[in-house]
Amino acid sequence: MTKHNHYFVDVSGLDTVDVYRMIELIGITCPVAQHVFKKAWATGKRGHKDLRRDWQDIADSAARKLQMLGEDAGRAQAGQQAFVEREELTYGEHLAARQADQYQGEGGVMIRCPDCSAEHCPCVAG
Questions:
Q1: ∠ CA(27), CA(8), CA(40), 5° rounding?
Q2: pLDDT recorded at residue 110
Q3: Contact at 8 Å (CB) between 48 and 80?
Q4: pLDDT confidence of residue 5
Q5: Nearest to 89 by CA among 20, 37, 40, 15
Q6: pTM of whole model > 0.90?
Q7: Helices 19-26 + 31-41 axis angle, to 10
Q8: If residue 54 lies in a helix (H) or strand (E), which one and from where to where?
Q9: For residues 124 and 98, is the Cβ–Cβ distance under 8 A?
Q10: Which residues of 82-104 are buried (b: 16+ CB within 10 A; e: fewer)?
């Protein structure tokens, strides 16, 4: 490839790739980054929001993430544990565990795959 290999993902084994599969393939684990990526994937094409509103939503989400990073830095400087991003369940792991009603991570935190809902995620729809 090129010196920019991190911009390429092999999708040769798939017939189609939607935004959720792409998020998984490129390893976006931050919920804010997932949200921004999803918005950017279809800016101005979703019907109920125009292009400007989608870009404003992206800017608002990015601004909140920057605010969160500042909060984390402040906590670390004060000697408190900073919040850190943690790996979420992959789509495959979630499907494997779909018999359970809840998925618990460290500290009892609910773990879900991106946009997990009966409408969007087959792991809870079926």
A1: 65
A2: 47
A3: no
A4: 81
A5: 20
A6: no
A7: 130
A8: helix 51-77
A9: yes
A10: eeeeeebbebeebeeeeeeeebe
Residue type, 100: A
- Token code pair at residue 16: 């189609």
From 11, 31, 12, select the one nearest 21 (Cα to Cα).
11
SS3 104: strand
Convert the pLDDT of each residue in 56-100 to its tens digit.
Answer: 999 999 999 999 889 888 877 888 776 665 556 555 565 555 545
User: Per the structure block, which two tokens stand in for 98?
Assistant: 């779909």
The pair of structure tokens assigned to 93 is: 């792991």
Place of tokens 């991003």: 85
Q: Residues near 90 by Cβ (< 8 Å), separated by ≥ 6?
A: 24, 113
